[in-house]
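Consider a typical record:
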Amino acid sequence: MAVVPYKEQKSGKKEQVAQMFDNISPKYDFLNHVLSAGIDILWRKKAIRLLAPAQPKKILDVATGTGDFAIEAMKLQPQKIVGVDISEGMLAIGREKVKKLGMDSVIELRKGDSERLPFSDNSFDAVIVSFGVRNFENLEKGLRDMNRVLKPGGTCVVLEFSKPRNVLFKAVYNFYFKYITPTIGAVFSKDKAAYSYLPESVQAFPDGADFLRIYEKAGFTQTKCIPLTFGVSSIYLGKK
């Protein structure tokens, strides 16, 4: 059974995730950085550094949210970055950020379903996604579509939460994630369900070797998993 933010609702995961991100969009960036003590910024930087050798000119940022990963990808000096997301609330904030940074001539943020990407086959040199695949209604379907729009030889970079393996660190992390995160999230975002969904979705997500199996099944080759910060999150690399 799919993990959803609003258990009392009958709508599907995709609709609920869109609603959730619309609800929390005004505080999303602030809470992201507070709850991770700013480490999420370092994770994105590392992921983009790993993509640098590929020198992609056209990049697709899937589940772009407020555009942080797309903005970080500007360090690669691409000709074009397109970000897609199902939440108009998140995109509106992202567009403001991109405009203020003077990056709107390169970065375009548009509404779109990450599992049914509105692009032709073999359109992008690289596909990137940070903290988005966990929210897919159908993980393999979403990954297959990412593979479809990637050019042959192109690189896919997935940054996603994972589960720490160290017993002591895992206990501290689980306590923080299960009790502290929803409390802080509820205070600032006024949507407790959203920040209760976060640890639940991470717990249910097939990380590490399990994710690599699905990644490969979706068509990616030369796959690799790089754990970050004691395994709190991981970078997954793949080629088409």
Summary: Residues 13-239 form a domain with the Rossmann fold fold (CATH 3.40.50.150).
